[in-house]
Amino acid sequence: MTTCIVSAYSARLSALGRSGTLSRMDAEASPSRSITSHLSRAASACRGAWRHAAQLALDIALPTLCVACREPVHGEGVCAQCWAKLSFIAPPLCPRLGIPFIYDPGPGLLSMEAIADPPAYGRARAAVRYDDVARTLVHALKYQDRTDLAPAMGRWMARAGHELIEDADALIPVPLHWRRGWSRRYNQSGALARVIADQTGANLLSEALRRIRPTQQQIGLSRTQRASNVQGAFAVAADRQSAIQGRRFVLIDDVLTSGATVDACARALLRAKAASVDVLVFARVVDTHKAPI
Ligand SMILES: [Zn+2]
Q1: pTM for this one?
Q2: DSSP 104-116
Q3: Domain count for the chain
Q4: 73 C-alpha to center of ligand 1: Å?
């Protein structure tokens, strides 16, 4: 990759050199032209060279870098080494919460977490465990405008959640409060939901569920604080109730930590008489200190 950049750089430099030489020769071949004409041509050649140099500098300064290790990368923002470090979640897993099991306990057996504290939503699935590389991807998409990561992340989510998507009438991204959406310019869950809808042909319903009051960031809050922070924060718009009633949905979010946010969203949709609500996230926290069943 480094070699590629260096050769591209050399090619661009020699092209720049050639164009400069031609301009100078052209000027010398016309001694009868006025000084004004010479000055004008020289200024124009300078402007062209500067434009070329500026573009070259941009190309050199901004190659796509792997979001995790900052090495130049072709394509989708994660290099092969970092991709290999992601912990993709695969069966066997809890059919309700999507938590991976160490061994297969047999069909239909739920995790202790699902039995002890059943969520409002039906089933949850996640593409990867929320570890260091996953966290870097999520933060880059959410806070650093790396929307180029959404296609790969969405594709992995579509694969992890294909059963849920096949059963659903539409995908619903977890909404931001309008004030946060305005300051962040886009909703990362919406970006992921759009990719999944494009990939699978699923319907997307973005405007029905709303965050009706701003909430504190969930980072750093306890499980109980997270639940009370988002309680009553979501509602279905009065004029969209008919789009929800009797239909099955998959909520789309970037991360599932305690599940408080998607639980509050599911409650709001179920209050509007949704037939079922499942959850699909890019990454979920898996507590490795607890026995999974
Ligand atoms: Zn990397």
Answers
A1: 0.75
A2: ---TTPPPHHHHH
A3: 2
A4: 8
